[in-house]
Amino acid sequence: MPTPIALIDCNNYYVSCERAFDSRLVGVPVIVLSNNDGCAVARSAEAKALGIKMGDPVHLIRDKIDRHGIRVLSSNYTLYGDMQRRVVAAVEEFARDLEVYSIDETFLDLAGFEDRDLAAHVRAMRDQVLRWTTIPTCVGIGPTKTLAKLGNAAAKKNPLFDSVADLSDEVLRTWVLDRFAVRDVWGVGGATASKLAALGIHTAGQLRDMPMKQGRALGTVVLERLIAELRGIPSGAVETIEPQRKGMAVTRSFGTPVTDMATLMGAVTQYAMRGGEKLRSHGLVAARLTVFFHTNRFKPDRPQYSASRMINLHPMTSDSFELIAAARRGVEHAWRDGYAISKAGIMLDELIDAELRPRTLFEGDSDKRGRLMEALDSVDGRFGRFAAVPAAQGFKREWKMRADMKSPAWTTRIAEVPRVAAN
């Protein structure tokens, strides 16, 4: 018997985090905007009911915002990240192990709890999350991650489940799968959904019954594994090769256009610092770094310029200081005066496991540098990003993204901790 798996998903997560500290947002339409206050990336149920769509540009819905009194907030990722840690702390005792899948979703291994009423077990977990954080959640349970994810979607969409759907029961599982559109199944993209529709496969139940060899021919091993999971067979039981991550990027648009090289250097330095942190968190090193920047191509009346420079990294590295040096060399070679830069970033390619990287004769004391990187990661992990930064990054960060409607750092900055007046 497969071990039961649960997926707990925080409802309207960004909005729920904001409401935890500002009761004026409860019961009113709220949207949270993307980087640089561009588009709606989170919507309360009230905002959804008013027709606000995910990704709506804020300048196109300004009339609706004004007409309905919709509250608009900038993204506060520091708050959302800290609240995620609190949610994880609240659920830890309810599972043998857990896997944080995204900032608002966590998979739970329920091995050892099979003799309990799992629905009641996860309801108690939901209650604890609500008490500790005020954040409402939905939970799906199943013998595989795909079924847990599908159960979570059913729990969120169908009020009959009262926010918890246990698909361990085969009869209930069949009922849900036969009513779930195949295009909404986790892992089925638009192109695959069109191919399946051409074969008359429109529901998750029909996909489950598809021959696995046919699934592999249509959508590679990914679709074959998905079919197995819909049948209650964990993907680990299907022979697969875990793909190696080939590259990663750190890019941002600027809140205010950058017109001097020194300011651009500060931004690129931060991106390289973050790139090294991401590499180390995955146990990887990179062989190549590409730095790029460009003007706003949507304003053709202004002078346009786009540049990129590729730098080989020898030896391969995840050392943030080495990445910074490479990125800055790229900027120095590519910079041209007289342009207003609207976006910049770095890309890291040819990634391999750090333990498998080729060694060179003149690497120096790599262990000492490795300990330094661990110390930096530890400081930033404890005190928040940018707690320790290289001087080249600067401290004013004039190029930072626009966030004119950002809420306070309620939980991570002592000066902004909410105060309760005594009666």
TrEMBL record:
The keyword Endoplasmic reticulum appears for this protein: no
Entries under InterPro entries matching the protein: DNA/RNA_pol_sf, DNA_pol_Y-fam_lit_finger_sf, DNA_pol_Y-fam_little_finger, DNA_polymerase-Y, DUF4113, Rev_trsase/Diguanyl_cyclase, UmuC
A Pfam entry, by short name: IMS
EC number, UniProt record: 2.7.7.7
Catalytic function, reaction form: DNA(n) + a 2'-deoxyribonucleoside 5'-triphosphate = DNA(n+1) + diphosphate
Keyword terms, alphabetized: DNA damage, DNA repair, SOS mutagenesis, SOS response
Entry's Gene Ontology molecular function annotations: damaged DNA binding; DNA-directed DNA polymerase activity
Residue stretches making up the UmuC domain: 5-189
Class of the enzyme per the UniProt entry, highest EC level: transferase
GO CC field: cytosol
GO biological process: DNA repair; error-prone translesion synthesis; SOS response
Family statement drawn from the similarity comment of this UniProt entry: Belongs to the DNA polymerase type-Y family.
Subunit organization: Monomer.
Its job: Poorly processive, error-prone DNA polymerase involved in untargeted mutagenesis. Copies undamaged DNA at stalled replication forks, which arise in vivo from mismatched or misaligned primer ends. These misaligned primers can be extended by PolIV. Exhibits no 3'-5' exonuclease (proofreading) activity. May be involved in translesional synthesis, in conjunction with the beta clamp from PolIII.
Protein name per the record: DNA-directed DNA polymerase
Organism: Polymorphobacter multimanifer
